[in-house]
Amino acid sequence: MTARIEPIIGRYLHLELEGRDHRIYFEEAGDGIPLLCLHTAGSDARQFRALMSDEAITSHYRVIAFDMPWHGKSSPPAGWEREEYQLSTSSYTDMIMSFARALDLDQPVVMGCSIGGRIVLSLALEHAGELGALIGLQCGAYVQRYYDSSWLNRPDVHGGEVCAAIVSGLIAPQSPEEHRWETLWHYMQGGPGVFTGDLHFYQVEGDIRGRIGAIDTTQCPLFMLTGEYDYSCAPADTQAAAALIDGARVVIMKGLAHFPMSENPELFRTYLLPVLDEIRGASKA
Q: What is the pTM of this model?
């Protein structure tokens, strides 16, 4: 096999969030319209590695993905050992917009999955004028807890393995084994309590059902793409949210589930590329 270097560049950004210094790791590839990608709960930005190596995307888009604080290569802030990590709508929104401003991204397209798919709805409400378009993967307004999340952070349970076990059923049965197990490996490496802290936003604090009717898609286009095999954010959940938003565009992706960009990137690109082409065409116009 011939050696090959992928066109992905990684850097660290020092960023003040909520009055504290954070060292944020991010990767990028490509040139053109900024495409800022948000990973799922408990994982990190490696989920977007296939997009960053896809010339059909990177020839038109500057694809950027960062590890949230406490995730991947982004360490928690100093003093983390004396606190409990809990993600909130306000802290998540501030993190995303602060990162985009620090990199001086002009009208970026923001694409998030799961918790990232949820937060794009808040971005649509609060920052539509600063964004070029929004893409919500596995995007719904609310999900009710369907398991006891305390199992995700117990001293008598292997945290990484139970986190991977919880999400293993959220991968479509057709997804290639190689990509399935890489997706699960990212979960096995998460820090203690991090997945639980993300789910505080996703399953408790981040219920946005009462607000999404105010989203104005004439200011910022909203695309909602959901895999048919997902029971955490089922197609019906996405369709119910979209029904409250005038102009929201919904695509139900056949053969995909909760992690489309990492579990089956070859299939996912067939759904994503038409959306990116439409956004690019509107940007030119």
A: 0.96
